[in-house]
Design a protein that fits this description.
With 483 residues, this protein is of the alpha/beta class. The chain has 16 helices and 16 strands. The chain is globular and about 65 Å long. It binds uridine-5'-diphosphate. The site of uridine-5'-diphosphate has 18 residues, from helix 2, strand 12, helix 11 and helix 12.
Amino acid sequence: MPTLSHVPVGALSVERFGSVLPPADYERFLRTVQWGRENFDGRVVWNVNSTAQGGGVAEMLVSLLAYARGAGIDARWVVIGGNADFFVLTKRIHNFLHGSPGDGGDLDEDERRVFDEVTERNAAEFRELIQPEDVVIIHDPQPAGLIPAIRDIGCPIVWRCHVGLDQPHPLARRAWRFLIPYVRDADAYVFSRRAFAWEGLDKEAAIIPPSIDAFSPKNQELDVDRVRSILTAAGLNDGDATGSPTFTNLDGSPGRVDRPAQRWERRQLRPSDRVVVQVSRWDSLKDPIGVIRGFAQHVAPVVPDAHLVYAGPAVESVTDDPEGGEVLSRAIAEYEAMPDEVAERVHLVALPMDDVQENAAIVNALQRRADVVVQKSLAEGFGLTVAEAMWKARPVVASRIGGIQDQIVDGTTGILLDDPLDLAAYGTAVRSLLDDPARAEAMGREANQRVRQRFLGTRTLIQAIELYEQSIRGEAHEGPGAD
Ligand code: UDP
């Protein structure tokens, strides 16, 4: 069974944020990182999660840790290893935390044994790495067992939970009962929204919403030619492209899209097609079947030039997500059962994951190519894909759940769907934007401003540095970034 692995973290200059932040915010940001550098001198800030690629947490850590290192903070990243039983179990926990039964299995003594055995192996290695003056940030349930296992070393431990539900649910409570014996030993808890904080935790939770990196391959500016070239290189576009399918890697080095995506489609996209896009892992809580069926029933018959692209990662690539293959197969079955005239307008895409930055550049191009971006999830911690699309000034139609509600102001920076299962309402919302490009464009502009103000990584870094500093001191403390 594989155990801990180290994820290489780059170092990025924080000075580039001068170009996207208002001067006062930029000043505050620089003050905080400088103060962090001084306070964390000699300490390692360890981040532990369960995958180096795929999903929102990995996406955020890549950038945030690189900026922290660029600012002189020794931030490091390790990923726990586990066996198949462990990841089936942690996926079940993940589903329960979202109020979904997942594979229908239990969370009992047998499951605890599986969890503890994997934890023990990872803990034995992790203990060799950490020093009492370090700070340890444990992300999400999978590595939560490490918290009591390293407690005696004496370093501050922060548990950051990125998932949650707006209303407590009996299944979520079962997951909490399973996890609380581990997480209660943490010195601080972090949730993405106030509503996500669990019952039965003995300390007040800090709230740090996720964020995106404006300069990463996922979000960097790409002009129309570049978008076309990247989509052509990935096999998604019909015809030739004149430009080169290049982008800038996170470390500033040049990158190029070379690998084609795997596609299930009758034909490729053409320039005259208008495109509705959802990008998500192959997870039933992202409701791929609903997205496809709702489009087929309520958009395709009415808007003749509309096409749906549903894109996710190549399924074998996301190690902590054993359901991916099955969910993709169900989406393919849905697609194959469609009548030709609808199937011709639907494109299922599995994006290459051999190089995560290449993957990110294709996602970037797809989001920029979209006339409307959809995130019709049934449960969502935050929904980074929403912020990513909003940053690109796309109008987004998304479910009124979880952190999506913090991002979209309904009718202004996007459209919220009250009932994510109401396919007709989803179709109506998408159509309303396709029918009124001026409104869609205005919404996109507002969306971009909202992300600029609230959901860039600089804000997360300020909050994280302040919180970790408080944990070191073991007291509430106002950092220099405080207003
Ligand atoms: N993503 C990606 N490639 C894919 C599918 C998804 O890079 O093929 C990214 C997506 O752009 C986003 C993240 O994975 O940055 C998903 O984060 P989100 O918060 O939306 O959902 P999660 O997967 O964490 O539930």
